[in-house]
Give the backbone structure.
Amino acid sequence: MRARTMNRHAIGLAIALALSGQAHAASAEGQRLALTIYNQDLALVEDVRSLDFTSGRSRLEFKDVSASIRPETVALSATGVEIVEQNFDFDLLTPSKMMEKAVGRQVQIVRTNPGNGNEVTETATVLSVNEGVVLKIGDRIEVLRADGAPTRVIFDKVPENLRARPTLSINVQSNAAGRRDATLSYLTTGLSWKADYVALFDEQAKKLDMQGWVTLTNKSGTTFSNAVTQLVAGDINIVRSEQYDWQQQQYMEQQRRMLAARQAGNEPGARRPLADYYVYPLAERTTVADNQTKQVGFLDAQGVAARKVYEYSADWFQTLTDPEHAAVVVRFSNSSRGGLGSQLPAGMVRVYVRDTDGKPRFIGENRIGHIPQGSEISVKTGDAFDVTVKPTLVKQERAGFWRSRYSMEYVASNARSEPVTLDIRQGGLWREGKVLEESIKSTRPDAYTLQWSVPVAANGETKLTFTVETGW
Amino acid sequence: MGAFACALLSSAALADIVSSAPDAVRVTIYRSPQTDVTPYADEEQYDFDYADASGLVMVSETRTIEIPAGTSVIVFRGVADAIVPQTAALEGLPAAILESNFDYDLLTPGAVIAKSHGEHVQVVRTDGATGRTTVREAILRTGPDGVVLDVDGKTEALNCSGLAEKLVFQRIPPGLADEPRLSMTIRAATAGKYTVQLSYLALGIDWSADYVARIDPDDRTLSLTGWLTLVNRAGTTFANTPAEVVAGNLARDEEETQPPGPATVTESSSCWPIGSFAKYRPEGERMFKRAITLNRGMLRAADSVEEVAVTGSRVPLAQMRELGDYKLYAVPEPTTIAARQSKQVQFLSEKRVPFTRIYTFRAIEESIMDDNDFVPRRAAVLLRLLNKESEGLGKPLPAGVVSVMESSGAGALLAGQDNIDDIPVGLPVELELGLAMDVWIEPRVTEERTIVRSDHNEERFSVEVRLGNDKPVPITLEYRQPSEGEGFRIVRESQSHTLKDGDIQWTFRLRPGSRAVLRYTLQRSD
């Protein structure tokens, strides 16, 4: 995709040069910038500037656009102005390029005598620039600096199409001369954002305080000064050059969704929706500098109802020699009743607890996907040091054609000084799975999964045993 | 878009308040999933690599800041070099934080050139023979991938002529800094001087638990010493700092929780090729050589795994307390964690911890049913402890490596090393030391039968095992048969078994020089 675009513009270049009666750089004077930044390494830049148009055709050069611009998305609009063509030139000026473009032309060479420092200037014709510069000086053929003597090369002028940085130029046809506002808009990569949440969890009070920050990163190569900025949360479809990237992204997104939202939301969000996405405008104009991460707060909720849960999941019936640690999960809701009342754009939740000295300490982090308001959210913070599970497959029997019977024993241990409840989930039930016997009554979250809430006394252990029969 | 009406917020226009250093720092160190954090002896020759930064540290700094009323920018200098900026939080300032910024556009020669495009510079040339310098005014046309200059209306390249050349700039381009810069834009109603807490996560500091178990001469008890090994791979020194480490496995996202930079622009000269009729030297050669040197360096680093010298004395132990579902150990005194340093502090010292020495053999399928070469198998040596107070221990044991030392007539002897997982109080600890020389097992299948049923077949194996103890002391030997496969059961056995971790287990008490025979028949569905 990109390669094709480049070719198109390279062809357009020759025409542009022929056309360019007068090229003037569109200066940043009176510039007003608006940025709309998406989660997916993409931003829409709207750049309003006052330009002095000449009547008829003229060429405008924009040097201060994003260095990561996607040139095929550029649009310029101003009253009484039509676009003849747009060019994006990216043949960059380097010494070797300059020499290559000088083949067949004359240059000055200034040789310095290493013994006495005397300079001799000669005119030379560049014959070839391959693994060395071959020059014709008068009737002699020489290789530049083959003798090691210092030799400067002076070029008359830089070839037109070599530029210090990629340059966007637009040829316009204006029906009247004069200064007026023009809006340049384009998409650029290199700008992205995500949310970072700070959740201060109080286990005793069963509450958490949650702050949300948007974290903006700018690796586009360009600084955007005093921009009106808004952030869009949601997954918009972006056509990228490689299908693989896209699939990868979808996969990651799926994983993220599975991670956090347990129950989809059912409340209308408070945030202003833009089509099917949510928009977070920043309250003030801001400068998004190149190579900068910027954070602005967007959420501050106190006393959100939250609780801690111990979980252990087994996908299959098997014995483990070493006990496994239960997962510690913080559960809360972003419904307005729960105290949060906001949809949560995708990002990272970092959970802290207050230590005995009252100071917060980090206890773990996990990603969440875009979560609509009113959802149940689970954030795994880590493994419990003191709550362990030891699974043993006690018996595995045949129960007819394509059917098996499994007897499992889970020993849940709790070394804490308070009782805990551990949710054990057993997957692996397939066709017509049924419980034959169990020491604790199970629930069935879905046809293939069983769940037990296992109470474990302080410094105690509880044995969960069950026998299931399932087809396969 | 109502935001147009808002006051302009330009960080350049605001006066910066520089908080140059913290008054006090406290660190809480979290561990990486892998257990071995011991640095290599020659590691310091490698620069700190941001991508390889392991471990996690929460830094809490106390700073004193004087702020004016209105909007201002506070610049925090002296933060850890591998800071994860999106985790920075400020407490104790009665002001709204409008935004928090982290700039990592670093001042490098390449960045100066890249950001000085179109500027007037001076090009200074020094004649190698006479030492005479000439200064010319020039305009920088491009860079940093090969500098092109306009001099007197003509164009020249820099550093392609073979002369001693340099550029002289009039100013540093704005936005470039010597180190990444954390700053916050705040708006305060009143001016004042405040003591604030700045906290953030950073990478590069890690810790691990290392244990030394010394077996007492009676071979019934051991003394267990636990060390916290702190390793600072980062370039920041935390001086005189209360330090804590957290034991337990945190959910982490090592992809997202990363320092973003720094972004450095390097200068490269892309001159035209310098050729000669006589000799042509390919450019690739030099790079190849460099790659080899680099590889050698890495190999050397991998070879020399250095053991940290343990010089213990009677010092107070690091104290443990609960932190949520983790264990937090506080280093007893404020300590200095210097850049590129590892440090050890004792957290556990238990004497006369009883243990049992067990010899075990697990009859996995290959070892008894495949080609039997009639060579006796050796039993594994296991030390079994119970982590209970009544059993002389009863302390949480963070995951780590246990080195077991035995005393012989000639002095201490390494008996073996094993990894342990996080072990809470109440659970058993098993340390596998290696294979015994004088305890052997000789299993063989004596009969194999297939029993044909109406809808499936059953396999039946008869196994005969000879066991022997050639040690001069009595031993306990556990022979274990995993119960694998559907319909598994023991049909016949010469002595009764117990169940252990889902395995069938027969236990033998063998006197010095004695032999025993075990016969059993197992059955399972085909």
